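Whiteboard transcription, Tuesday session. T.W. wrote the structure tokens on the left side:
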């Protein structure tokens, strides 16, 4: 019996949500991408990274073993999402959405083919597409030339709009609030994870209040103590704080995929003489760096 189950679906459930940015802002981004397509003589782009799909569509996907894409041509912009997400990708996407089902193994690529018929040159993100995925794309689009769009799209994202700057500033404010909650939670005998939870919960609640239409995901805290501070990305543990500990406070509010950070070094109760000696060296370097920050200065020159 042939498999007659649907390969693709339109799961346009509910209404479009309140977006992170204005229609004008999102149109500016997609128009910028279309300019890149024209300059590179591309028939379309298949964006696959978290950052590019989020930036150009306002949809931040959850991978969970399934592939996603945002297809952009001179005439359309369509997110490609897995059936497990139902209508959520469509509700968030600035553009259209098509859902692929799991009934056949290659339905994801079938969805791409349906959106890009007759394509001869396509842009993909070389820094995100692994070798296996690249081969599968080539099988799905025989004879098509794939061109890197990762680098030019990155440079496009580096120029922040006024709307982006406003969101980033609010993210920084949220990080400050999380840092204050962490400072208030620091006590001798309290485990690292409890301190981290205090900061995370405070930031999530603030984001929910400030951005009531945002999805609440990925906000977190790194909080290390004592020997655990020797690596910047050491995970939170159940180690209990002790007097004299050096503490590393790191708050990361994530609002609609935008990362901001507050990073501070503290000491519980007191700092040793050796700690203070090294601390003063760091402060001296910091003050000198501030003196060198001028319009036109190069980061490499400031660092040396």
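and on the right, the sequence the group agreed on:
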């Amino acid at each position: 019996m042939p498999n007659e189950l649907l390969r693709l679906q339109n799961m346009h459930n509910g209404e479009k949500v309140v977006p992170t940015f204005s229609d004008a802002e999102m149109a500016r981004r997609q128009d910028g991408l279309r300019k890149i397509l024209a300059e590179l003589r591309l028939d379309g782009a298949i964006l696959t990274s978290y950052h590019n799909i989020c930036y150009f569509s306002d949809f931040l996907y959850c991978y969970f073993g399934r592939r996603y894409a945002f297809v952009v041509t001179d005439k359309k912009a369509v997110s490609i999402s897995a059936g497990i997400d139902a209508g959520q990708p469509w509700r968030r996407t600035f553009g259209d959405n098509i859902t692929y089902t799991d009934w056949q193994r290659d339905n994801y690529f079938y969805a791409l083919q349906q959106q890009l018929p007759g394509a001869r040159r396509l842009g993909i993100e070389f820094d995100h597409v692994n070798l296996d995925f690249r081969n599968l794309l080539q099988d799905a689009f025989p004879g098509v030339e794939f061109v890197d769009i990762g680098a030019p799209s990155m440079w496009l994202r580096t120029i922040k709009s006024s709307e982006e700057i406003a969101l980033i500033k609010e993210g920084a404010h949220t990080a400050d609030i999380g840092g204050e909650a962490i400072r208030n939670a620091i006590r001798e005998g309290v485990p690292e994870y409890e301190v981290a939870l205090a900061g995370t919960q405070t930031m999530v609640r603030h984001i929910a209040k400030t951005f009531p239409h945002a999805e609440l995901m990925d906000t977190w805290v790194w909080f290390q103590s004592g020997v655990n501070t020797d690596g910047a990305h050491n995970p939170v543990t159940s180690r209990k704080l002790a007097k004299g500990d050096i503490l590393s406070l790191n708050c990361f509010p994530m609002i609609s995929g935008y990362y901001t950070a507050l990073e501070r070094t503290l000491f519980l109760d007191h700092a040793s003489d050796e700690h203070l000696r090294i601390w003063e060296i760091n402060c001296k370097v910091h003050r000198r760096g501030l003196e060198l920050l001028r319009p036109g200065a190069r980061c490499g020159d400031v660092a040396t």
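Someone added at the bottom: The chain has ten helices and twelve strands.
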